[in-house]
Predict the structure of DUF3231 family protein.
Amino acid sequence: MNTQPNPELTSAEIASLWSNYLNDSMAVQTISYTLSQVEDEDIRSVLEFALSLSQQHVQFIENLFTNEQIAVPDGFSTQDVNLNAPRLYTDDFFLLYIQNLGKLGMTTYTMALSNAARSDIVQYFKQNLSTSADLLDQATQVKLTKGIFSRAPYIPKPERIEYINDQHYLSGGWFSDKRPLNAIEITNLYYNIERNRVGAALIMGFSQVAQSPEVRKYMVRGRDISEKHVDIFNKIMHNDHLSTPSVWDAQPTDSSESPFSDKLMMFHITTMNTAGIGQYGAAIGTSQRTDLIATYTRLTAEIAKYAEDGANLMIKNRWLEKPPQAPDRNQIARDKG
């Protein structure tokens, strides 16, 4: 039996766990609210599974950080949610929201796992990756059963191997003919349309209920950005006569009573901004038409500016927790003198 003590956590492991704690402590509150409102029993089952996962993650990290003598982040608590607030979203939206969380979890835990070395941390993130896949599958199966799953476009099956013969394949200039989108480019566009639709609906609800006028203004701006990006991606798809994600019942209700604190809602949008920049970066790296690369680059810059303004607003209100960081060696040297 191995009796060797665990090595110290690395900066990468601390970063992943710290971020995981903030995200899941938020998820505990948001999912608890959805469970206070949901009526469909199949969707409730998926939400309950998601809540149990987030609660387990929060408890694991609290225990780990306490044992390692690492400060546990404030994160979010029951003070950040009002379970008695009126319904703000539909059951169908709750399901799509959870499906999106499952996708985000798989991306996040893949990165965390690839940067972990300590055996207990590796096992933790392996388990999280597996259960995120289970959550995504459960949400997808319920959508399929209810007939609300939107499938990506079909294209002809390739019957032979082909190689790119000339530079025109990469061309996407304003004054030259563009080739049809390839399967990878379609996938990126389709996913980013769906993801932005979820974001637009979520943030539209936030814009109705935020307490602070500054936060409401920020949410309206984010809603408009998401809707604009959907329109841009839709147009690109429609130019090739490709279907886009179907319209589903995602509009928030007319409630103006907030189920969440402004701090929680701002943090939630911060995580969406981070995910959006990452997804656009992946699309830039895998798209081969120059016009698509230019479009994603321009839209990434827009999200980055929006994210910066959001961070400044959170700092102004003392809502933004500082991540663990390296010591300032220059300051230590100055203090010594």
